[in-house]
Amino acid sequence: MRILGVIPARFASTRFPGKPLTDIAGKSMIQRVYEQCLKSSALNKIIVATDDERIATHVRGFGEAVMTAPEHPSGTDRCREAMQLCGESFDYVINVQGDEPFIDPSQIDLLAGLLSGKTELATLAKQIEDEQQIHDPNVVKVVKDVNGNALYFSRHSIPYHRGSSGNPGIGLHPYFKHIGIYAYRADVLERITQLPVSPLEYAESLEQLRWLENGYRIKVAVTELETRGIDTPEDLERVLQTLKK
Question: Quick one: 94 exposed, middle or buried, by C-beta within 10 A (0-12, 13-18, 19+)?
C-alpha cells in the first residue's frame, strides 16, 4: 500500500494572507506541518501543493513542493493535481491541512490504518468535550453508523435530541466533531473532483457532503487527540502564548 501525503498551501487568504510562511517559534507554519508528516510511519512520500512561488521556493529548502493551478476551489482539487504531477503511482492520498502545524503523526497513522484497498474515503473525528462546540457552526459535527461510516456532516448540532428541548448537551448524547484530515483512494480522488457542487454541499458549505450525496462512503476513525488549526492571526497568538508557557 503506497500512500502519498499532500499538504495544500495557498498564500492568499481572506483572514490570514501568507499564513503558510508565518513564523512559529523559529520555523514557518508549513515547515512544521511537513516535519510532523515526516514522523508518520504511513506516508511513502510527502509533497506541498501550492499555487505560489514564494511558498514553493521556501519548501524546497527542506522538502518537496509542486506548483498547482491557482483556481482550485478546494484542497481536494489541489491534491488531485499534486498526485498527477508527482510522477509516481500511489494507492491513496492523505490530505494534511497546511494550517495544522502541531498535527500528531499518530493521527496520520490512525487514518492510514483505515485504508484497506476497499476503503474509498476516510477521515477523523473526536468526541466533543466542550459543550459550546456543539452549538458552534464553525465546528463541524459528524454522525456515523455502526460500521464506522459517516452518515452526515453538519455545522448544526447532530443528532437532534428530542428530550433536550432543542438544547442538546454532552450528557445527553456523545457528539463528535470532524477533524479535517482526509484520505482518498486514488481512483476515487479522480472521480470526486469531477462532480458538480451538490445541494447539501451548497447548503452547509462542506465538500464532503458532495461525496456522500453521490453515494461514496467515508470511513471515520475516532482520535483522542485535539488539533490546533490556525485560521487567523488571533489563533496564532494563542498558539505562541501556549508555546511560551
Answer: buried
pTM assigned to the model: 0.93
Buried b (16+ CB within 10 A) or exposed e, 124-141: bbbebeeeebbeeeebbb
CB 218 within 8 A of CB 121: yes
Distances (CA, A) of 170 to 127, 137, 159: 10, 16, 12
- Chain centroid to CA 147: 21
pLDDT digits (tens, 9 = 90+) for 72-106: 999 999 999 999 998 899 999 999 999 899 899 99
Q: What are the extents of the domains in the chain?
A: 3-124+178-196+213-232
pLDDT of amino acid 210: 98
Helix (H) / strand (E) containing 110: helix 105-112
Residue 217 region by backbone torsions, left for phi larger than 0, else alpha for psi between -120 and 50, else beta: beta
C-alpha cell, 136: 458552534
Superfamily of domain 3-124+178-196+213-232: Spore Coat Polysaccharide Biosynthesis Protein SpsA; Chain A (3.90.550.10)
